[in-house]
User: What shape does this take?
Amino acid sequence: MRTLAIVVFGLLTAACGFQLRGQATLPFETMYVAIPDASLIGTELKRNIVAGTRTRLVNDPAQAQATLSVSSEERTKSILSFDTRGRVREFQLRYRLGFRVHDARGREYLPQSEIRLTRDISFNDAQVLSKESEELLLYRDMQSDMVQQILRRLAAAPSVPIAFEPGSKDAASR
Assistant: This one.
């Protein structure tokens, strides 16, 4: 009976299309990651590209098939709700990253894009230190989610850069 249950579970899992994430396939052989030194996401992104793809990171943008440029990174915190005495009960954490992927001649694989993540966190005056730690953990979790979303977008990028002609409809709309 147990063997039958294992076989049925295996067949159901295979039939639903489930598979482990494995290694991502990026359409670039070499890549340069241009991230400001103050950015917290740079190290994790580079580590994931090296460990989770076949793409090789280079130190010179002229040697790279594609360059990932981060244009903006912003972490904000805003009040979400108050209690009946006017004290803060919840905050909303926001993490926003703007980036684009282009080649050495400026042609784009991915045009300027932005990823926005939000998380809600409750607040209690009696637990200030633990809530600060929770906030840091949520930002770290958001950063990991951000890296995974960037990798998925890179994997979906075209293998040939998109060339926009000056004066074309696409160039005017950008």
Remarks:
- The first strand starts at residue 30 and ends at 34.
- The two ends are 62 Å apart (CA to CA).
